[in-house]
Design brief:
Number of helices: 7
Number of strands: 17
Largest sheet: 9 strands, mixed
Strand content: 35-45%
Number of domains: 2
CATH architecture of the largest domain: Roll
Structural class: alpha+beta
Length: 281
Protein backbone atom coordinates (compact mmCIF):
# COMPACT_ATOMS: atom_id res chain seq x y z
CA UNK A 1 0.00 0.00 0.00
CA UNK A 2 1.29 3.46 -0.91
CA UNK A 3 2.02 5.67 2.10
CA UNK A 4 -0.40 8.60 2.50
CA UNK A 5 2.35 11.26 2.75
CA UNK A 6 5.86 11.74 1.39
CA UNK A 7 6.85 15.43 1.59
CA UNK A 8 6.53 18.47 3.83
CA UNK A 9 4.64 21.53 2.65
CA UNK A 10 5.41 23.85 5.57
CA UNK A 11 6.20 24.10 9.25
CA UNK A 12 4.11 26.26 11.60
CA UNK A 13 5.90 28.22 14.33
CA UNK A 14 3.64 29.90 16.86
CA UNK A 15 4.19 33.47 18.05
CA UNK A 16 2.19 35.35 20.62
CA UNK A 17 3.41 38.67 19.16
CA UNK A 18 3.68 38.60 15.36
CA UNK A 19 5.51 41.92 15.12
CA UNK A 20 8.14 40.72 17.60
CA UNK A 21 8.50 37.44 15.68
CA UNK A 22 8.92 39.38 12.43
CA UNK A 23 11.74 41.38 14.00
CA UNK A 24 13.41 38.22 15.37
CA UNK A 25 13.41 36.34 12.08
CA UNK A 26 14.44 39.41 10.09
CA UNK A 27 17.36 39.65 12.50
CA UNK A 28 18.31 36.10 11.55
CA UNK A 29 18.65 37.24 7.95
CA UNK A 30 15.37 36.00 6.47
CA UNK A 31 13.03 37.75 4.06
CA UNK A 32 9.42 37.55 5.24
CA UNK A 33 6.25 37.81 3.20
CA UNK A 34 3.82 40.66 3.95
CA UNK A 35 1.52 40.17 6.90
CA UNK A 36 -1.49 38.05 5.98
CA UNK A 37 -4.76 37.53 7.85
CA UNK A 38 -6.69 34.27 7.56
CA UNK A 39 -10.40 34.26 6.87
CA UNK A 40 -12.31 34.43 10.13
CA UNK A 41 -9.71 36.79 11.56
CA UNK A 42 -8.42 34.52 14.34
CA UNK A 43 -4.83 34.32 13.10
CA UNK A 44 -2.31 36.27 11.04
CA UNK A 45 1.01 35.23 9.57
CA UNK A 46 4.30 35.96 7.89
CA UNK A 47 6.08 33.28 5.87
CA UNK A 48 9.69 32.42 5.04
CA UNK A 49 9.55 31.08 1.50
CA UNK A 50 11.73 28.51 -0.24
CA UNK A 51 11.35 26.56 -3.44
CA UNK A 52 9.90 23.34 -2.02
CA UNK A 53 8.71 24.31 1.46
CA UNK A 54 8.26 27.25 3.79
CA UNK A 55 8.03 28.25 7.42
CA UNK A 56 4.90 30.02 8.64
CA UNK A 57 5.00 32.34 11.64
CA UNK A 58 1.47 32.30 12.98
CA UNK A 59 -0.05 34.40 15.76
CA UNK A 60 -3.52 34.89 17.24
CA UNK A 61 -5.06 38.27 16.56
CA UNK A 62 -7.61 38.31 19.37
CA UNK A 63 -10.33 38.99 16.80
CA UNK A 64 -11.68 35.46 16.59
CA UNK A 65 -11.14 31.86 17.67
CA UNK A 66 -9.62 28.80 16.04
CA UNK A 67 -7.80 25.66 17.20
CA UNK A 68 -4.43 27.02 16.12
CA UNK A 69 -5.04 30.41 17.73
CA UNK A 70 -5.96 28.71 21.00
CA UNK A 71 -2.88 26.48 20.81
CA UNK A 72 -0.54 29.44 20.39
CA UNK A 73 -2.23 31.22 23.26
CA UNK A 74 -1.81 28.20 25.51
CA UNK A 75 1.68 27.13 24.47
CA UNK A 76 3.36 30.39 23.57
CA UNK A 77 6.23 30.83 21.14
CA UNK A 78 7.77 27.82 19.42
CA UNK A 79 7.21 25.01 16.96
CA UNK A 80 3.53 24.20 16.63
CA UNK A 81 2.70 22.03 13.64
CA UNK A 82 3.69 20.31 10.42
CA UNK A 83 1.74 20.54 7.18
CA UNK A 84 2.45 17.85 4.59
CA UNK A 85 2.01 18.15 0.85
CA UNK A 86 -1.13 16.97 -0.88
CA UNK A 87 -1.95 17.07 -4.60
CA UNK A 88 -5.53 15.92 -4.00
CA UNK A 89 -7.03 16.66 -0.59
CA UNK A 90 -9.87 14.15 -0.89
CA UNK A 91 -7.53 11.38 -2.01
CA UNK A 92 -5.15 12.21 0.85
CA UNK A 93 -7.96 11.96 3.39
CA UNK A 94 -8.92 8.54 2.03
CA UNK A 95 -5.30 7.35 2.01
CA UNK A 96 -4.83 8.43 5.63
CA UNK A 97 -7.95 6.54 6.68
CA UNK A 98 -6.83 3.45 4.74
CA UNK A 99 -3.59 3.60 6.78
CA UNK A 100 -5.56 3.62 10.02
CA UNK A 101 -5.17 7.35 10.66
CA UNK A 102 -8.18 9.37 11.80
CA UNK A 103 -8.55 12.11 9.18
CA UNK A 104 -11.19 14.79 8.77
CA UNK A 105 -12.76 15.82 5.49
CA UNK A 106 -10.92 18.55 3.55
CA UNK A 107 -11.69 22.13 4.54
CA UNK A 108 -11.37 24.93 1.99
CA UNK A 109 -9.65 28.05 3.35
CA UNK A 110 -8.31 31.28 1.92
CA UNK A 111 -6.72 34.60 2.80
CA UNK A 112 -6.40 37.89 0.94
CA UNK A 113 -3.13 38.94 -0.67
CA UNK A 114 -2.41 42.48 -1.83
CA UNK A 115 -0.22 42.64 -4.94
CA UNK A 116 0.37 45.90 -6.79
CA UNK A 117 -2.85 47.41 -5.50
CA UNK A 118 -4.96 44.37 -6.39
CA UNK A 119 -6.50 41.98 -3.87
CA UNK A 120 -6.05 38.29 -4.69
CA UNK A 121 -7.22 35.22 -2.81
CA UNK A 122 -4.66 32.64 -1.71
CA UNK A 123 -6.74 29.45 -1.60
CA UNK A 124 -5.91 26.04 -0.16
CA UNK A 125 -7.48 22.91 1.32
CA UNK A 126 -6.42 21.41 4.65
CA UNK A 127 -6.95 17.86 5.82
CA UNK A 128 -6.54 17.76 9.58
CA UNK A 129 -5.59 14.36 10.95
CA UNK A 130 -4.75 12.74 14.27
CA UNK A 131 -1.27 11.50 13.56
CA UNK A 132 -0.56 10.41 17.14
CA UNK A 133 2.60 12.48 17.09
CA UNK A 134 2.65 14.07 20.57
CA UNK A 135 3.22 17.81 20.68
CA UNK A 136 2.23 18.44 17.05
CA UNK A 137 -0.68 19.77 15.06
CA UNK A 138 -0.58 17.70 11.86
CA UNK A 139 -2.39 18.28 8.60
CA UNK A 140 -2.05 17.93 4.85
CA UNK A 141 -2.26 20.98 2.62
CA UNK A 142 -3.20 21.31 -1.04
CA UNK A 143 -2.56 24.71 -2.60
CA UNK A 144 -5.34 25.69 -5.00
CA UNK A 145 -3.47 28.83 -6.06
CA UNK A 146 0.21 27.80 -5.93
CA UNK A 147 1.20 30.70 -8.15
CA UNK A 148 0.12 33.12 -5.42
CA UNK A 149 1.85 31.33 -2.55
CA UNK A 150 5.22 32.43 -3.95
CA UNK A 151 3.98 35.33 -6.03
CA UNK A 152 7.18 37.32 -5.59
CA UNK A 153 10.53 35.72 -6.43
CA UNK A 154 12.26 38.10 -4.04
CA UNK A 155 10.43 36.43 -1.14
CA UNK A 156 12.81 33.50 -1.65
CA UNK A 157 15.95 35.67 -1.57
CA UNK A 158 17.36 35.69 1.97
CA UNK A 159 20.29 37.78 3.16
CA UNK A 160 21.63 34.81 5.13
CA UNK A 161 21.74 32.85 1.80
CA UNK A 162 19.25 30.23 3.03
CA UNK A 163 17.98 28.08 0.18
CA UNK A 164 15.67 25.67 1.97
CA UNK A 165 14.75 23.67 5.05
CA UNK A 166 17.19 20.78 5.52
CA UNK A 167 15.74 19.09 8.59
CA UNK A 168 13.14 19.39 11.33
CA UNK A 169 13.96 17.91 14.73
CA UNK A 170 11.38 16.94 17.35
CA UNK A 171 12.13 16.75 21.08
CA UNK A 172 10.78 13.64 22.81
CA UNK A 173 11.46 11.85 26.06
CA UNK A 174 10.80 8.52 24.32
CA UNK A 175 11.23 8.68 20.53
CA UNK A 176 10.13 5.03 20.21
CA UNK A 177 6.47 5.99 20.63
CA UNK A 178 6.69 7.90 17.34
CA UNK A 179 7.81 4.92 15.25
CA UNK A 180 4.46 3.27 14.45
CA UNK A 181 2.66 6.57 13.75
CA UNK A 182 5.51 7.68 11.47
CA UNK A 183 5.44 4.35 9.63
CA UNK A 184 1.68 4.68 9.11
CA UNK A 185 2.09 8.17 7.64
CA UNK A 186 5.22 7.71 5.51
CA UNK A 187 5.74 3.98 5.05
CA UNK A 188 8.28 1.60 6.59
CA UNK A 189 11.00 2.36 4.05
CA UNK A 190 11.28 6.02 5.09
CA UNK A 191 11.60 5.41 8.85
CA UNK A 192 14.82 4.22 10.48
CA UNK A 193 16.70 4.31 13.76
CA UNK A 194 18.87 7.40 14.17
CA UNK A 195 21.28 8.82 16.75
CA UNK A 196 19.34 8.99 20.03
CA UNK A 197 16.01 8.54 18.25
CA UNK A 198 14.34 8.07 14.87
CA UNK A 199 15.00 9.51 11.41
CA UNK A 200 12.50 9.94 8.57
CA UNK A 201 13.68 10.65 5.02
CA UNK A 202 11.01 12.65 3.20
CA UNK A 203 11.20 13.66 -0.46
CA UNK A 204 12.30 17.21 0.31
CA UNK A 205 13.88 17.14 3.78
CA UNK A 206 14.65 15.10 6.86
CA UNK A 207 12.56 14.67 10.01
CA UNK A 208 14.19 13.46 13.23
CA UNK A 209 12.92 12.64 16.71
CA UNK A 210 15.56 12.97 19.45
CA UNK A 211 16.00 12.80 23.17
CA UNK A 212 17.68 15.68 25.01
CA UNK A 213 20.93 13.73 24.88
CA UNK A 214 20.76 13.75 21.11
CA UNK A 215 19.77 17.41 20.96
CA UNK A 216 22.71 18.42 23.15
CA UNK A 217 25.09 16.37 21.04
CA UNK A 218 23.73 17.80 17.80
CA UNK A 219 23.27 21.45 18.73
CA UNK A 220 25.14 22.00 22.00
CA UNK A 221 23.75 22.43 25.51
CA UNK A 222 23.32 26.21 25.19
CA UNK A 223 20.95 25.77 22.24
CA UNK A 224 18.29 24.14 24.44
CA UNK A 225 17.96 27.27 26.60
CA UNK A 226 14.45 28.62 26.12
CA UNK A 227 13.15 25.45 24.47
CA UNK A 228 9.66 24.42 25.65
CA UNK A 229 9.33 21.07 27.39
CA UNK A 230 9.02 17.88 25.33
CA UNK A 231 7.23 16.92 23.21
CA UNK A 232 7.80 19.85 20.87
CA UNK A 233 9.36 20.86 17.56
CA UNK A 234 12.84 21.55 18.84
CA UNK A 235 14.85 22.73 15.84
CA UNK A 236 14.77 23.77 12.21
CA UNK A 237 17.92 23.37 10.14
CA UNK A 238 18.28 25.58 7.06
CA UNK A 239 20.59 25.03 4.10
CA UNK A 240 22.70 28.08 3.27
CA UNK A 241 24.89 28.59 0.23
CA UNK A 242 27.38 30.75 2.15
CA UNK A 243 27.85 30.00 5.84
CA UNK A 244 30.14 33.02 6.21
CA UNK A 245 27.34 35.29 4.97
CA UNK A 246 24.93 33.74 7.46
CA UNK A 247 27.43 34.32 10.25
CA UNK A 248 27.96 37.92 9.11
CA UNK A 249 24.19 38.54 9.25
CA UNK A 250 24.03 37.16 12.78
CA UNK A 251 27.03 39.26 13.83
CA UNK A 252 25.48 42.36 12.27
CA UNK A 253 22.26 41.79 14.18
CA UNK A 254 24.18 40.98 17.38
CA UNK A 255 22.46 37.61 17.49
CA UNK A 256 23.97 35.09 19.90
CA UNK A 257 25.02 31.84 18.21
CA UNK A 258 27.58 29.04 18.36
CA UNK A 259 29.70 27.66 15.54
CA UNK A 260 28.89 24.04 16.34
CA UNK A 261 30.23 21.00 14.50
CA UNK A 262 27.06 20.67 12.41
CA UNK A 263 26.68 24.38 11.58
CA UNK A 264 25.85 27.77 13.05
CA UNK A 265 23.35 27.29 15.90
CA UNK A 266 21.06 29.96 17.34
CA UNK A 267 19.58 29.01 20.76
CA UNK A 268 15.82 28.65 21.16
CA UNK A 269 15.79 31.54 23.63
CA UNK A 270 17.03 33.85 20.89
CA UNK A 271 14.97 32.46 17.99
CA UNK A 272 11.44 32.52 19.38
CA UNK A 273 11.29 29.15 21.11
CA UNK A 274 12.89 26.98 18.41
CA UNK A 275 16.56 26.19 17.75
CA UNK A 276 17.71 27.52 14.36
CA UNK A 277 20.65 25.94 12.59
CA UNK A 278 22.42 27.09 9.41
CA UNK A 279 24.29 24.34 7.59
CA UNK A 280 26.27 24.44 4.34
CA UNK A 281 24.33 23.60 1.18
Amino acid sequence: MTAPLSALDHIVVGARDLDAAHKTWRGLGFTLTPRGAHDGGATANHCLMFGESYLELLAPTGAGTSALASAVGARGDGGLGLAFKSDDATATAHALRDAGVTAHDPVALSRPLQLDGTTHRVAFENVMFEGNLPGLFTFACRHATPELTRARHEWQLHANTATGIEEIVLRAADPAIYRKPLEALFGFARVADGPHGINVVLENLGLAVMTDVGLRERFGTKALTGLPAAPIIAAVSFRVSEADAAGAMLDMGRVSYDDHHSGLVVPAAVAGGVIVEFTDD
